[in-house]
Amino acid sequence: MATNSIKLLAPDVNRGLAELVAKRLGLKLTDTKLKRDPTGEVSFSIQESVRDQDIFIITQIDSGVVNDRVLELLVMINACKTASARRITSVLPNFPYARQDRKDKSRAPITAKLMADMLTTAGCDHVVTMDLHASQIQGFFDVPVDNLYAEPSVVRYIREHINFNEAIIISPDAGGAKRAAALADRLDLNFALIHKERARANEVSKMVLVGDVTDKICIIVDDMADTCGTLAKAAEVLLDNRAQSVIAIVTHGVLSGKAIQNINNSKLDSVVCTNTVPFEEKMKSCPKLAVIDVSAVLAESIRRLHNGESISYLFKHSPL
Amino acid sequence: MNNLMVFGGSSHPSLVNKICANLGIKPSQTKLGKFSNGETSISIGESVREKDVYVIQSGCGHVNDNFMELLILLNACKTASASRVTAVMPYFCYSRQPDIPYTAKGAPLISKPKDSYTFESSPGTPVSSVVTTQRPKSPAENAGSNLTVLENVRSPKLPVLEHPSPVKSLGNGELHKSPSQSRIPMVPERKENSSELGSLFNANNAGYKLWVAQAGTLIANLLTTAGADHVITMDLHDSQFQGFFDIPVDNLYCKPIAHNYIQYNIPEYKEAVIVSPDAGGAKRAASLADALEISFALIHKEKRSQLPKGPPDASLTSGGGATVSSKPLISNMSSLSLTSQEMKLSSSSSKYVQTTMLVGDVRNKTCIMVDDLVDTSYTITRAAKLLKDQGATKVYALITHGVFSGDALNRVAQSAIDKIIVTNTVPQEKTVKFLGKDRVHVLDVSSIFGESIRRIHNGESISMLFEHGW
Lengths: 320, 470
Fold this sequence. Notes:
The complex is a heterodimer. By secondary structure, chain A is of the alpha/beta class.
């Protein structure tokens, strides 16, 4: 790969994933300066020329300061655009506002669409993301979106760490049934579903288990763990139905609010997240957390994108 | 007010209420909040179908959160079939992204880290003898107030340029250590990232490598993308900003209420002087001075390359460098009868001198500084000091947007500013509490915004609001 025409950029915070990706690609992150006002306005400068280069901006959006990260990303994209970059690809493993993807009540905003418009307006030519909450979000964009899957990495993790002959895949809600079923197919495992009636966002109500989990290791699979209230409740329901043990594997470990408390108090054996969201700090206060590294998938997709190769191989296989 | 709806963001609810009171309607129902992961959540409690919607959000507080909230509100109204959506931003955030600091020859200026010099870095005021005779004998008496620090400037008087004595550099060092320095703002670049950029230049030792994000167009495009059909704002930092938009932007002025305030609240305002604390705001200040028919002065900050190419230390050791560098300045200025204060940047790596010039006469006069924005307050506190130093009796500061970030309020409290007049485009409760009611006066702009919303809604002209006496 010609190193003189590709540049990897990352904001000054949450560089962990970006550095892993850069290491895999044998590249260095480009020198940038991001400066914040006391009020939070950002100004940004790049210390190298980006003219006619293929730019990849790797951003991890952590919980709590989403809007700051988004504005920083937009400013970075725009800076590259006005500095005559050839192509700007935004690598956004966890897409912000992905859950506000429809008008679920009157006059509700479709913020995911707004995010898509904003990224394109800032000058983004391509978006790489992972496990979108709803894959229809790809249609909100006028530019190509590559929605990568954490599934191959998750499959490998299950094969390596869990006695999966006794395991069963659980979807914690009806919406995630398809994702869980696909994973169960890949591993040739059984599949069960928990049906819940959600009263309000971030709140859990009544749960009903569909399927048999007696003496099984239950693997709850979801795309996002926020306050972990759902997961904790689901674990209780499963154990009440005579499950052997319960672990959860989620792609985006946002882990906001009382998540750590909820996990520590829950009957879950462990909660495994990919490193799309930075949560190293939280791992210190919660021994139940474990991590799946997806930097290889992202690095390989960047390599393939830059060289104009197909990405679809990565949908089924996880690179080492 | 048929079909008119006003929504308020969470940045400045009191202004929203005042504007609505002006329009005789109630702010429409919204629920603003955040999801636990920090994403903004809003819901609109009333139907907006075929309505004329105004969303008021000031660019203050936590800027990015508030800006995102505005975008989401605009978008929610737009997607809920509002007939027209107008963004009302009393203070427009991201409006003063700095230009890249270039010299006339095209190379970027070399700036320095903030903490390496202070306002008083240069002891004497090397001015021509003509100017010296104009100086008041004892400005401290005129100044009256607590300006003991100014002694630092006056005591080492070295008016004769040709003989900069070693005392100069000695005084320099002492001043750096002196505890009385604490009251004096570090000098500094007002444009926030120029010093940062400066260190970059130094680090690379090559002026050319610079790519700075200019957020102006981006912010404009984001608003348009979110669905804004119209933008109302006040005293934009650059009026060129309007050109970044593809939709109409109404830039209101607080000049009429400022005019009113000066006329009725400043005693003998006809004798006062309007001062612009930097050259960029000269036009704004001059137009106010014209409207009031009073005189006008200008403070000009200038960074220019030091002319001698010799080793930078030479000036400090031999005492010759400062003289040489100031010569061309003086030759320019004495003909124009300017008063100048020149600050030679003290660190040995210094490549240019910073000059602050006062153009105009303020001796024994009340000064009214006019500026659009106070953020760090370096500019106005330093300007106030210069004005008192030049014999001004009283210094007012008339500011449209008082953002006062960081420890700006502390700096203002200890500065030579006698009274600060600020509008409520940004919430000012904290300012009033901190500085006391005697030193702060808050001008209410809600009537201007209310009237402009009424007129825009009714399709009337708003140019009348630009003039005095409506």
